[in-house]
Amino acid sequence: MRFDVITLFPSIFDSFLEQGVNRRAFESGLMQVKLWNLRDFALGTYKRVDDRPYGGGAGMVMMPEPLLKALTSIREDRREDRLECPLIFFTPGGKPLKHDFIQAWGSERGAILLCGRYEGVDQRFIDLYVDLQISIGDFVLSGGEIPAMAFLDSIARLQPGVLNTQESHQFDSFNNTIDGLLDCPHYTRPELWEGLAVPDDLMSGHHEKIQLWRKQQSLAITERQRPDLLMRLRSKDKLIK
Q1: Residues 108 and 208 placed together within one structural domain of the fold
Q2: Is there a catalytic annotation at residue 50?
Q3: Which run of H or of E encompasses 220?
Q4: Total domain count for the chain?
Q5: CB 91 within 8 Å of CB 135
Q6: Cα(163)–Cα(167) distance, integer angstroms
Q7: What is the span of the domain harbouring residue 134?
Q8: CA-CA-CA-CA torsion for 155, 161, 162, 166, nearest 10 degrees?
Q9: Is 223 a known active-site residue?
Q10: Which of 38, 68, 77, 94 could form a disulfide with 135 if both were Cys (CB 3.0 to 4.6 A apart)?
Q11: CA end-to-end span of the chain, whole Å?
């Protein structure tokens, strides 16, 4: 699985690819990430990739020509067209990134990831070449690098051998292979800390009692923190009553 990243700041990805448990996916070759510096495809002596917006207004807009040159080079390097390798653009106006999408993408061949900067990307490039626009939340960041890393991180941890226990990700929040609820609380040693004890059910050693407690806690947390998620699950009959 190969991901090509178009970015103005490739060094941002260095520690991400080299540290943490997910580095196993990159070191083992399960996932290959290739960084492409957009400046290498920039125009003129000053390596310009942005210009003032037509119609006026604050900020600068990323020019379409350097982006197209970068995209063309990547497709030639991959020897794949857009049907085999889509271009994903991270933008606040994109579709919300959901766990079921990550699960489905975990078995795909990869993608080209575009990390925007400045005020945005020339709409003509988006209209002609972007296959999917993704948002990681209703807020604005300085660029698409953090969303791209979030996307790669969530896919990497699903790959075989990345987590110490392969079943770990099956109990994550939003995992629709279980019930789609938020994850339950977790506790470890010491048994008593700051006057707070580990719940008795978790100390009982009774498997069914522990599972019931975790289910009830997941329901309670989801209802408190994400009632919208609970309503959606119930409407789709995905939630075990």
Answers
A1: no
A2: no
A3: helix 207-225
A4: 2
A5: yes
A6: 8
A7: 2-156
A8: 80
A9: no
A10: 94
A11: 38
Q: Is residue 194 in a domain?
A: yes
Give catalytic status of residue 227 as yes or no: no
pLDDT tens, position by position, 26-77: 998 899 999 999 999 998 888 999 999 999 998 999 999 999 999 999 999 9
Of 39, 86, 119, 226, which one is the catalytic site residue?
Answer: 119
168 lies in some domain: no
Instruction: Write the CA distances from 193 to 117, 198, 201, integer angstroms.
Output: 45, 9, 17
The catalytic residue among 153, 172, 179, 223 is 172
Query: Tens digit of pLDDT for each residue in 115-170?
Result: 999 999 999 999 999 999 999 999 999 999 999 999 999 999 888 888 766 555 45
Q: Name the residue with tokens 């990134």.
A: 97
Furthest-apart CA pair in the chain: how many Å?
70
CATH of residue 106: 3.40.1280.10
Residue type for 195, please? G
Establish how many alpha carbons lie within 13 A of residue 128's alpha carbon, considering only the half-sphere containing its beta carbon: 11
User: Considering 24, 117, 157, 214, which one is annotated as catalytic?
Assistant: 157
- Is 172 a known active-site residue? yes
- Cα distances from 89 to residues 96, 104, 107, 119, 129, in angstroms, run 12, 18, 20, 14, 10
**Could you say which of 78, 80, 92, 226 is catalytic?**
92
